[in-house]
Amino acid sequence: MKPVNWGVLGAANFARQHMARAIHEAEGARLYALATSDPAKAEGFRAFCPDLKLYGSYDALLADPEVEAVYVPLPNHLHVEWTLKAIAAGKHVLTEKPIAMKADEIDALIAARDRSGLLATEAYMIVHHPQWQRARTLVEEGAIGRILHADAAFSYDNRADPGNIRNRPETGGGSIPDIGVYAYGSVRWVTGAEPVEVRSRIIRENGVDTFAQVIADMEGPGGRFTYAAMTSMRLPPRQEVVFQGEGGVIRLSAPFNAGLFGEAQVHMFRPGKADHVERFPGARQYRNQVEAFGRTIRDGAAYPWSLEDAKGTQAMIDRVFAAAT
To answer: How many CA atoms lie within 13 A of 7 on its CB side?
Structure first.
């Protein structure tokens, strides 16, 4: 397969530490170009990709006919604008989550994708991790029976970094846009369920949510179940997702930052049966995401996360904000 030439819009720390490296290392991909107005920021990228082509503006990178796919790690409020510009420039585009700040903004992205025939989607990397794929299979196969309850917790503490875009309202900050997409979207993806009723409690600082507690009734192919979620940017680090069924419990450890927060594992507990644990120490979800994107472009392979999926999660986020007390 001919490698896909990738361009990156902006020298974000996350891109330098994770996604640009994943593109550089992935099979079927080539980290080709970076757009940044600050050449000093490019040095961290050139440390592992010396031949990287540099552009001083995003528009200049998009004008390069050699760039086939674009990765957009810009602040949240710029995602829709630059996703649309990348599509208009004829590029496939992978944009960081949340891809929009409101669910109805994604309609324009879907329309542009459909007109162009290009692959445009949200960088929702966890669906490419075998831990989550295994959890989904177990639930779909009825390994713990009908789901009765699910809960998710995701927290970290960045109060010491007030300038961080996650702590700034003008850049679309907050725990819900940053990590609520994982707490809510992951359960939606595994169960196929959508919220029918949402209740939430939100604590804010400087115009962004720093703590959010959600209780929802979810309904999907397996019926209705209760869901509880907690996200925070002011608590010690915690990551866990649990599915409770009529016949047992599935618990996911390190479900969102696999390998960084801890080892990704799937634990299954069923009364009268031996506890079952599956470990995924070597899986690399960012690289998997890039390789899956390339297979879709080159071979037409199915891609596991669509703009419609992203819209569903954003619609839930919108409801969480609207229901807040």
So the answer is: 30
For residue 21, the model assigns a pLDDT of: 97
The Cβ of residue 233 has, within 10 Å, a number of other Cβ atoms equal to 26
Q: What is the DSSP letter of 262?
A: B
pLDDT confidence of residue 1: 73
Q: Residue 204 corresponds to which tokens in the numbers above? A: 């804010």
Residues 190 and 67 in one domain: no
Tokens for 83, please give them.
């996703």
- What is the DSSP code string of 17-65? IIIHHHHHHSTTEEEEEEE-S-HHHHHHHHTT-TT-EEESSHHHHHT-T
CA distances from 304 to 176, 224, 236 (A): 22, 24, 31
Query: How far apart are the two ends of the chain, measured CA to CA in Å?
Result: 52
Both 98 and 162 in one domain: the answer is no
317 is a domain residue: no
pTM of the entire predicted model: 0.96
Bridge partners of 201? 213
Residue 245: its pLDDT value, please? 98
Spatial neighbors of 224 by CB under 8 A, at least 6 apart, are: 196, 217, 218
Residues 6+ apart with CB under 8 A from 177: 76, 98, 101, 317
**Residues taking part in catalysis:** 97
Considering the domain boundaries, does residue 30 fall inside one? yes
Is it the case that residue 215 has pLDDT exceeding 90? yes
